[in-house]
Amino acid sequence: MSKTCDNFKDVANDEAVSETIIIEDTLQLPDGTVGDPALHFIDDTDTGFYRIGTNNVGVSAGGSKALDMTSTQTLFPAINDQTAPAISFTGDPNTGMYRLSADHMGVAAGGVRKMSFSGSVNSSNQKLKVDYLAGGPQLCIENASLSDESRMYCDSNDDLFIENSLVFKNIYMQTSNAGQFHVRPALPTTTNIDLCVEIGDGGTGYTPLFEVDESAIRSRTNHLFLNGSESTPSISFNNDPNSGVYSVGADQVGIATGGTLRMDVSTSNITSTLPVLAPNGTVSLPAYSFSGDPNSGMYNVGADQVGLATNGNVRLTVADATITSTEPVILPAGSLSNPSIGFTGATNFGLYHTGSDVVFVDNGVEIFRYSGSQILFSKPLRLPNYTVATLPAGLSRLQIYVSDTAGGPQPCYFNGSDWIETTTGSVVA
To answer: Does residue 152 form part of some domain?
Structure first.
């Protein structure tokens, strides 16, 4: 077999051979190198074909390996350049596939990476990664027979969107034939529901878990959380993971802030480890009141004043120096040893009520009593001491002791006009 070629080069004389050369047998060439390929071009000596090894031919361009061909593979250069992918297209050289790193391939369009595939899963390289594309979906699946398109994309806020052009389209996450997680935009039989999350039974039946619309999230079943702890509550917040709600123990719910228990709610009491600050409230709506009687309770009357109200009216005001009641104060009857009105440090000194008399006691001993018509003294009564020269202005039935009357020292009383000696009946003089 013979071949004809034009424009060969006479290497010895370094000049072109313009006539036709006919090769009628096998053409054997040296191996060449990537920088000096065995078969190259007159005006581009570092571009052409060379032998890499047994059954291995390379194509070089500009002294660099552009293609590596064996009997089983065609290998492209491992260049991490999304603007010039190793496998691209004539007229669109910045669109195609290229190597990102070991076991990691990228797909670029218009010089920008759109998708990558990895052979392993770690914090930075996923099995399949679809890069963000502003203004459109990253992944589309079309069904021509239904004129249907499903789209999945992530926006600039890292929000994931899954959309479908038809009205009722479902998203399934299936772990086994017996259990499925089913999400759909809305139930066909309901209205005004933006999202319904259901659990499947492996067949055609689904039980709704919760529904979401523009005004609320409605749960259709119970939610079981981990017990948590005061440092890691089971219900907490993205930017405050040690503040929230957790289970303190059986039948106890705790509220923690900063990793410390602040309130413990059990079946019998509510215990707070911090002061409870209530609003000031008003006389008609006290800060502390009752579910069946909201206008009775305790509120802040003003600075350093606490008020007790019933039926929307203040009944008792406690201030720094006084306690003022607007209603009669009804005390228990008390007893001789425990009077109903006593004093700090002397609880057996004061007044009590026998049922008919008011009794004044001192150290558990009766001193006098008032029966409504008279005062009966159980101890001597000491009268104020005066002289004739210092007699006070009299009040009817007032008694005093005068030390220098004509009849000698003695009690005297005022009859309405004069002081009278009790022993003689004479006017004190």
So the answer is: no
